[in-house]
């Protein structure tokens, strides 16, 4: 059946209202600029939180989430319209993206009603920032090997000891979802439990790590005798692996599947090409144009495939293994786009603040290898596609890769 991409009358009106909202609040909203990629910093995070709160108050965050948890109860098309219009107005991605993309959907699927009421609305408004405490020094792809321990105390609370690593935005987060080992006597996938942790609890230490793009977005997090109430358990004891899978599938959709462009916008790539192409030889120009065409086509394909996934999500379906394919191709397109931006920019791309101000290509390029690792490495995603989409024989390894 052919797909009609023209807005219905209702959608056109929705889009017009949103554009009007963005115009009226333009001076209060943060716009994309290079600062964010290079080093968010506390002040910048605060500004981005205010932008998210303003958008939330206008009804443009949590578009497809249920109304009882602070969402708008709208369909996937409306979410796609919001995503498009925010990009068009150069509004950066929502700062609490880990909360919205991963922690929130996990709480919605596995949390108690009390947890949903306490956390979800505030998360959508960025009143509370969230982080995802899964990876450890000894377990990334093999997440089920997590060793951070949670031991039940006589009074029913849990005592947590251990270490997580690569925890994005832990330094800004009020809460995190924490995967911990609660039973060492059963096979590894069955001895895990998920918790919500208040990051200000005594015994939690967060240490930022420097990345090669210059930013310190992710962290080491240490837990030393941290006490968590049993009311903060997310799902049943021993069910942590199932809960984590919900997070991971949503993470793959959030990174690669919602039709958004990663790290760079194709219109700025086209503008860069228009400006820089005349400086290249005729032969080079042909090659660069071909490369640009490929990147644009890849991005279009990803965007429209993303809309299909959004539709499934809005119908309440849980993202399946196909989310892995979405993430793989979106990251590949972003890597190609960033490389082209750097090639077009030449030496300008190498300086943090080049004279013409166009310095984000090298930062973007330096961020891309991280995207190919976060939320499941390329190799692990290919395993998932091979085994669960194509039905090939599973890898002959004793520990099952899951990230
Ligand atoms: C930018 C960024 C942000 C991140 N944010 C977070 C976060 O907020 N929270 C969090 O918990 N984690 C986060 N991570 C961590 C991320 O989830 C892990 O880095 C990832 O799961 C890979 O784990 P690892 O680094 O331990 O690598 P390993 O699992 O040790 O993998 C090393 C290499 O072996 C390959 N490999 C491993 N297993 C297999 C297999 N079965 N078959 C084939 N090849 C395999 C991998 O592809 C990789 O090339 C982030 C990472 C990055 C880069």
UniProtKB/TrEMBL annotation:
Matching SUPFAM superfamilies: Acyl-CoA dehydrogenase C-terminal domain-like (SSF47203), Acyl-CoA dehydrogenase NM domain-like (SSF56645)
Key word Membrane present: no
Keywords carried by this UniProt record: FAD, Flavoprotein, Oxidoreductase
PANTHER family from the UniProt entry: ACYL-COA DEHYDROGENASE, ACYL-COA DEHYDROGENASE FADE34
Domain Acyl-CoA oxidase/dehydrogenase middle: 131-226
Protein name: Acyl-CoA dehydrogenase family protein
Annotated Gene3D superfamilies: Acyl-CoA dehydrogenase/oxidase, N-terminal domain (1.10.540.10), Butyryl-CoA Dehydrogenase, subunit A, domain 2 (2.40.110.10), Butyryl-CoA Dehydrogenase, subunit A, domain 3 (1.20.140.10)
InterPro entries assigned to the protein according to its UniProt record, in alphabetical order: Acyl-CoA_Oxase/DH_mid-dom, Acyl-CoA_Oxase/DH_mid-dom_sf, AcylCo_DH-like_C, AcylCo_DH/oxidase_C, AcylCoA_DH/ox_N, AcylCoA_DH/ox_N_sf, AcylCoA_DH/oxidase_NM_dom_sf, Mycobact_Acyl-CoA_DH
Domain Acyl-CoA dehydrogenase/oxidase N-terminal: 52-125
Family: Belongs to the acyl-CoA dehydrogenase family.
Domain Acyl-CoA dehydrogenase/oxidase C-terminal: 238-390
Source organism superkingdom: Bacteria
Cofactor: FAD
Matching Pfam families: Acyl-CoA_dh_1, Acyl-CoA_dh_M, Acyl-CoA_dh_N
Keyword Thylakoid tagged: no
């Amino acid at each position: 059946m052919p797909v009609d991409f023209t807005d219905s009358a209702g959608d056109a009106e929705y889009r017009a209202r949103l554009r009007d909202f963005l115009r009226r609040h333009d001076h209060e909203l943060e716009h994309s600029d290079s600062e964010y990629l290079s080093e968010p910093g506390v002040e910048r995070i605060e500004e981005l939180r205010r932008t998210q709160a303003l958008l939330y108050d206008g009804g443009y965050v949590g578009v497809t989430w249920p109304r009882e948890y602070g969402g708008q109860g709208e369909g996937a098309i409306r979410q796609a319209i919001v995503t498009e219009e925010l990009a068009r107005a150069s509004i950066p991605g929502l700062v609490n993206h880990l909360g919205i993309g991963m922690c929130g959907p996990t709480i919605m699927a596995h949390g108690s009603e009390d947890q949903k009421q306490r956390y979800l609305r505030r998360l959508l408004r960025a009143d509370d920032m969230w982080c995802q405490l899964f990876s450890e020094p000894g377990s990334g792809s093999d997440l089920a090997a997590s060793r951070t321990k949670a031991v039940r105390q006589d009074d029913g609370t849990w005592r947590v000891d251990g270490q997580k690593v690569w925890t994005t935005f832990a330094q800004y987060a009020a809460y995190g979802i924490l995967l911990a080992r609660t039973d060492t006597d059963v096979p590894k996938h069955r001895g895990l439990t998920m918790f919500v942790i208040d990051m200000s609890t005594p015994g939690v230490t967060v240490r930022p790590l420097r990345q090669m793009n210059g930013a310190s977005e992710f962290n080491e997090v240490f837990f030393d005798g941290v006490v968590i109430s049993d009311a903060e358990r997310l799902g049943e004891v021993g069910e942590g692996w199932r809960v984590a899978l919900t997070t991971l599938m949503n993470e793959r959709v959030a990174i690669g599947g919602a039709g958004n462009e990663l790290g760079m916008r194709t219109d700025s790539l086209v503008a860069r090409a228009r400006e820089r192409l005349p400086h290249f030889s005729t032969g080079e120009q042909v090659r660069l144009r071909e490369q640009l065409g490929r990147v644009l086509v890849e991005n279009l394909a990803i965007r429209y495939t993303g809309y299909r996934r959004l539709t499934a999500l809005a119908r309440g379906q849980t993202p399946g293994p196909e989310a892995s394919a979405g993430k793989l191709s979106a990251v590949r397109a972003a890597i190609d786009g960033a490389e082209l931006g750097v090639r077009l920019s030449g030496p300008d791309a190498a300086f943090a603040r080049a004279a013409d101000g166009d310095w984000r290509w090298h930062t973007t390029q330096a961020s891309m290898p991280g995207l190919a690792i976060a939320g499941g490495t390329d190799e692990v995603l290919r395993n998932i596609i091979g085994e669960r989409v194509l039905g090939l024989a599973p890898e002959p390894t004793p520990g099952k890769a899951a990230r």
